[in-house]
Amino acid sequence: MATEATGTQAIERAAQLLVRVVESAEPPSIGELSEDSGLPKSTTSRLVSALERQGLVQRLGERGRLRPGPVLLRYASRDASQTLIELAAPSLRRLADASGETINLAVPGPGGVEHLAQEDTAHFVGVTDWVGRRVSFELAANGKCFLTFGGAGCLQSAEIRANGYATSIDELEVGLTAIAAPVLGANGVAVAALSISGPTARLRPRIDELAPTLKNEANSLSLQLRGAA
Question: Measured between alpha carbons, how far apart are the two ends of the chain, in Å?
Fold first, then answer.
């Protein structure tokens, strides 16, 4: 009976910590969770490690702040992804009309950027279907948005944060350029990103021209998502 009681207590404590991580406005640290819960730091660390092994929480960067893990994110994204795609459709169409290039909607996944929807380029050169493809955060413009705005790890670039958009020029593939802007949740974390991509020779000279329109559409989608939440 004592073992059963101890096991139940550990489950309750772990559940309480998980709720705190999910409901925190900013990703908490182990120390903050320990202080808020009244548990010893060693106990908190042990319980968080168990949650992490099951994919229920994940650590951000070297400081180890905590956010909901890939299991919870995948579950939450089942219905949310469809809502996001529906809300983003007009923005994708407007950006495609304005740029003539390929437009994508992407979200941060457990192993990289995941592309949910696309509007194709008006040109013959540059047509690539990104939907369903996963690429590394570091090389993709939308991935850099997630890294910088907290959707997939630690902060990466003060310049990207200041500009409000990120670029990838000949990084993912030679001859390919992309520009992306984050779609921010109520807590300021990037939950998605809109991107424009095309051949470097055609798109790179237009980055300054297209960035304001891209940022406006990403901001508009951010506001819509908060209203739909």
Answer: 44
Last residue of a domain, one of 24, 49, 68: 68
Q: Both 12 and 104 in a single domain? A: no
Same domain for 85 and 166?
Answer: yes
| Domain interval for residue 107 | 76-228
Together in a domain, 55 and 80? no
- Digit-coded pLDDT (tens) for 49-82: 999 898 888 887 656 789 888 777 666 656 567 7
Tell me the per-residue pLDDT of 144-179, one tens digit each, with 9 for 90 and over.
Answer: 999 999 855 555 578 999 999 999 999 988 999 999
Q: Are 116 and 81 in contact (CB under 8 A)?
A: yes
Q: Shortest CA distance to 101 belongs to which of 119, 85, 80? A: 119
Helix axes 41-53, 30-37, angle to 10 degrees: 120
